[in-house]
Every structure is written in structure tokens, then in C-alpha cells.
Specification:
The complex is a heterodimer of chains A (392) and B (98).
Chain A lengths: L4 H6 L3 E5 L2 E6 L3 H10 L2 E4 L4 E6 L3 H8 L11 E8 L5 E10 L2 E6 L4 H9 L9 E4 L4 E7 L3 H9 L10 E5 L2 E5 L7 E7 H15 L5 E3 L3 H8 L34 H10 L3 E8 L11 E4 L2 E12 L4 E9 L10 E4 L4 E7 L27 H7 L9
Parallel strand pairs in A: 3-13
Antiparallel strand pairs in A: 1-2, 3-9, 4-7, 4-8, 5-6, 6-7, 9-12, 10-11, 11-12, 14-17, 14-19, 15-16, 15-18, 16-17, 18-19
Chain B lengths: L2 H24 L24 H15 L15 H17 L1
Helix pairs in contact in B: 1-2, 1-3
The chains are: A alpha+beta (392), B mainly alpha (98).
Amino acid sequence: MTHLASIHRYRKAVMSERNGITLPASFNNEASAHGALRESILLADYSHFGLLEVSGEDRFDFLDRVVAGDLAYIREEQALYSLILDNEGYIITDIYVLCDDERYLLLSEWFTGKGLADLLGHYMKSGESVILKTRNRENGVLLVEGPYSWELMAEIFGIDVIGLPYMEFMPVEGGLLFRGGKHGEFSYKLIMEVAVLADVWKQLQEHGERYDIEVSGLDFQIAARLENPCWNPMILGKVTRCPIELQMQWAVRYDKDEFVGRDALKRRLEEGVKRRVVGFCCEESIVDVRVGSRVFHGDRIIGEVAVVGYSAFRQAVIGQAIIDNSYAYAGLGGYTIESEDEKVAISTVPVPFIGNFSFLVNPSEHSYVDPSRPKSFLDQVERQPAGEEAEI
Amino acid sequence: MESDLESTIEQRKDVLRRVKEGLIVRLNLYQIVNQIDDDTPLFGSGLKLDSVDATELLVMLDEEFGIQVSESEDPFYLRSVNSLASFIISRQTKTNKN
């Protein structure tokens, strides 16, 4: 159970289990939560995230051998997003690795801290000086995400938040503030001591009111991840766990001397994969396309749908399909997907599917709450006197 | 495969290859072409480009593809290798029509 269970019950949350933890799935506000994620701020309890501290003299060599990304890339107060692969080069989980003084902190949304410790324990060599300690009893995680989340964070935790680069973190009273997310917006994870978690949650809600903050359960991820796809073992992971087929090789560092699954993955890359995951957009907005529906070019079956849904921001039915390699390119028309009645025309498109609003917001120039400053570059252009060009 | 589709795919493959080779050479990336997926994000955790690299990208668009980008251009063409390729193909198509 999440440490914030009583607060969520008071708000009549619909609870569900994720990663062995019972926490809110929904507050029956999916549409407004999605709007807040894309236009203001969303707050969610992310206590399902597994937290594992890795310390000891050999912590770097050990972790660098297990994680597919390059641990040498990060210094203190920096973080790395990467994958843990099995010996055959297939994804077991994605992971954030935070480099802290004398320790690494691992965050995974698909494993508990104990589950991560069990997984990593398999790769430890005898005599290696590594200590694994779960942090889920002591800490909870909150998500604050959206184009103006930086402004709320700065209001509560100080102006330094504004200068915090992507994939870096800073200490705050009672925990850590980490900037990094998966949905294309400004995103912060607060990794807080249990003793202060409820107070911080209330503080975020109170201060967040003027930012039109929406409290959300984890169900917001369904629409968010349809538009900004990311690793999900329960969706794309059911179709393939291969980083090449998933177009996730960017999370792998091939030129490292060694990491679990490296040789198998390199072999597969040299041999070439037979299919790849590609984004698609249906040409009609009301269609009955489902996961598993077959994708055609003419009468030839070239793939199947891996995930599909309606995007309010794109105002279209979008999804990803796993398609034969020779057909698996964006920017193509002429493919169809079978539906209940007839075949539906699609175009293949680059992912992510939407232009995230956070791209148009600059913390040093814009504001959600200060009327003297423009809200975004779009607002800045509108406010510009005729004949002058805004600097973008 | 129909010849129209085949030529569209060949055009895209050519642009993708030139974009990836350009990125590798100009930004000193460690990867080889087939280690960069089409949907790889250019910034953030993907290829980890920064604002200096973005300027080099604009130079690459000009020198390699003859495309000049104005400040008013929608910045989303810089999201991924694929979105950059789509932008280039769209510009090439417009130029050919004119």
C-alpha cells in the first residue's frame, strides 16, 4: 500500500495494484488529468517505483556491467536512463540510475526495490564489494509533470530548480528532486522520506491550485504513452522485448567493453531484424481497430497492431504496429488495418505523435501565473508589436 | 511491392542514411549507422544533443540538403531522426513541385 493511502481514500480514488503496490489508478478525471499533463501540471503518486541503493567499492564496475547504458557518462547529481537486458539481449526492464555521493540510486517502475535487488544479485561476482539496499520503506515517489511543473517546483523548492538540467537531480529538504520523464513534458520526481511525503503532497496541491494542477491516478499514462511511446512490458513488451525491433537502441551503449546481453544484441544487429515497431495514424477518426489487428499492404499481411487508441491532442486514432522490416518506415501511405467491418487506411508516422507544449515554454521567459510574462513562445509572438519578430 | 511505394521507401532510406551519416561525422557520435534507429530522439536521453549541436544540425541541413530554416519554423521537426527526415522530404517535395 502507498504511504499516502488515507489521503487517496479521502479523495475517493479508484485503487489498483502496480508493481505489488496498491495506489490510485484513477480519480475519475482522466480527460482533465491528460489536459493538465499537456497544458499545466499533473500530480501523481509514483510510489510503485522500486528504489534500490547500490553502494560499496565495486559499485561502478558492477552496475556498469549490468546496465546497457554507459555509467561513465554520469557524474554526481546526474542520471542515466537505460535498460537492463537478459543474456539474450532482450529487455528485462528500463531503469533510471542516479549517481549520488558514494552510491547509485536505481529507480524502476516495473520492479520493486527488492525485485531489483534480486535481479541484480544474480550478476554479482564472488568477492565483489557491492551493497544492495532497498529504499521503499524509507521513501516514496511523487510525480509532478507538465509544461509549468518547473514553476511550481521553483515556488516550493527554490529558484535553483529552474536551472536544473534534464536528467539531473538536487537535494531538497526531506529528499531528492530529480528531473526526468517519459511523456515529453517538463517532469520531476520527488523521492521523499516517508515522514514528509504527506506534507509535500498537500503543499503541492495547495500551491498547485493557481496552476490548475490535477491530481491523477496512474491511468493517465494510457493516453500519455499512446502519444509519447516508451517502454512498457505490459503493452509493447508483449509484442517484442528486442531493443532493435522497439527502436530503443539509443538506450544501449554498444562500445562498452561488457554488459549483460551485449554480444547477443550485437549479433542480432549484424544479422538484421525481420520486423520493427512503427507509428501509424488512421485516416478516419472513428474506427474499430484493436491490438492484434493485422496490417496489410494490398492483400499481403505485413504486420500487426501492438497498441492503438484515440489521441485527443492529435484528434485521431493512433498507434504502433510491428511491421516487416522492408515496409517499416515512417511517411508511407497505402497500408490498411483490418477492422470489424472493412479495412482502414493508415499512414505511418514518426513518433512521438504530438508536439509537446513544453517545447514552447522557456522557464527563464515564460510563466503560467505571472500575467506580466508570456505563457509560451506562441503567446510571446502574439504579444509582439506588429512588425517585430519574437526571438525563438 | 508496388513501384510507387518502393521509390518512396528508397527516397526515405536515402535521406535517413544521409542524416545519420551527417550526425555521426559532424557531431562525432560513436555509433555506426545501423545502431541509430529511425525514431531515435535527437535531444534528451536519445542522441543527447545540446543547443550547440542544434546549430550544427542547421548547418548540416543547409550544406547537405540545401535547406535553410527560418526562426519561425515549427521546432518539432527536431524531435527525432525520423521527424527530421520527414521535414527534409517535405521540403524536397515542395522544391520539386516549384
